[in-house]
User: What shape does this take?
Amino acid sequence: MEAPGTDASARPGNMQDVNWRDFRDHIATADKDGRRRWLYPKAPSGVWHRRRAWFASFLILLMFAGPWIRIQGNPLLLFNLVERRFSILGQIFWPQDSVVFAVAMLVFISGIVVFTVAFGRLWCGWACPQTVMMEMVFRKVEYLIDGDVAAQRALAAAPWTAAKVFRRLFKHGVFFGLSFIVGNTLLAYIIGSEQLLAIQFDDPRKHWAGLTAMTLFSLLFYAIFARFREQACTFICPYGRFQSALLDENSMVVAYDRRRGEKRAPLHRDQGHEARKSSALGDCVDCRQCVAVCPTGIDIRDGTQMECVNCTACIDACDAIMHKVGRPSGLIRFASQNHLERGEPQRFTRRMAMYSAVLAALVGVFLWLVLSRSPVETTFLRVSGSLYQMLPDGRIRNLFSVKMINKSHQPLPVEVRLENRAGSVRMMGATNPVVPVGQYLQTSALVDLTPDQLTGSTTELKLGVYSGGRLLERVETQFSGPRSETPKSNP
Ligand code: SF4
Ligand code: SF4
Assistant: This one.
């Protein structure tokens, strides 16, 4: 019996041929009892795969080279959570730059939203590090060692002979080696490449924490790429789950052209196109090659599904079949639902325009924040709990604690000047201390004012931070003094 409300006329266009009795009762990678069904996807080949392989090679190169590339001495990318130091495209960011981070995160999320609305889950199949490493590195190694699907299935079913044990040990040894490299690369993004080298080559007793992280990361990636595989995309990654809220009938996705493909039926020997047409048969010869290559085990003919990562392997597989049976390619292709069902051209919709405008605004704010960032960030605060000091000549003195962060690419000799009052600022230690690149300087400063400069028990001070005579930033702070009988207003 059909579920209520699921009569054929009520189903979405490309879902009308699905067997609704059991469709989605269980996912493609689990059997009816919920046990894992191990996938053996056929090795993909074709135009789309070649494009993807080139793009993945570029991304893999970038991913592994990232921690070692320097821009003006700073890492291309660094997310040092331990020291709370971050570098993006060679620009050093500190926790104080949280606004920049928040906006960068919004740009990233909005970029994915806009991209998904327009192009579906292209990110997943083409740029996500998990898919890129799984399909373009680990899967390829598996094909090299175990062979294609038939050989893999045969090996899995074979008894545990010495040859099988050796082959399995060899493959998993290579997998662990690759996972070690991936884990070390992630660690280099977190702690920096110099720290990573220190962990690798220093006395191990000095780096217990680093070595533990290295081992855990390697084991984690080994578990993901050797065992968990596509389950990471289906169960853990939230992106696949919220894509249904983002996609609409104008989004470009990998889709099956059911108007052209149905009614599907195997091709009989000597059955020409005209004979199929007169039997009301479509172009799909039901060869299931699109399913055989799918790394998530789904049948794209059932419509857009959460598991589909838009890897385009099924496009190549189907195009090869169409070529063999003498039909035009593109039975499975990148297309919108509106295009497939109503023949409408791909449109830049109002929804896409709105999301793009939000993204453009956020990118503008992000660029403004980055470009207008002062090369030095100063905090100038009265030492907590300290009182003012009366000097013998009548002046009043406050002790301040000073912290300066150098976000530029060169050491900065700095000088602090009082901007809104007559008085003096004296840095403890050197008069013009030098803030090292990418680090901070912590010191103290004495500020002296004459009583006529005070506006009350607290007086607002404006200070300028200069380097080589150039004003880098202005900071404000409060000066404490005795209560004045005739308070003066701030200039
Ligand atoms: S349905 Fe096609 S595009 Fe989607 S994951 Fe499977 S092979 Fe890739
Ligand atoms: S590969 Fe093409 S022809 Fe074969 S089953 Fe899939 S859609 Fe049909």
User: Anything to note?
Assistant: Residues 254, 293-296, 298, 300, 308-314 surround iron/sulfur cluster (ligand 1) (CB under 6 Å). Residues 35 and 410 are 59 Å apart (CA to CA). Residues 1-20, 485-491 have pLDDT under 50 and may be disordered. The two ends are 84 Å apart (CA to CA).
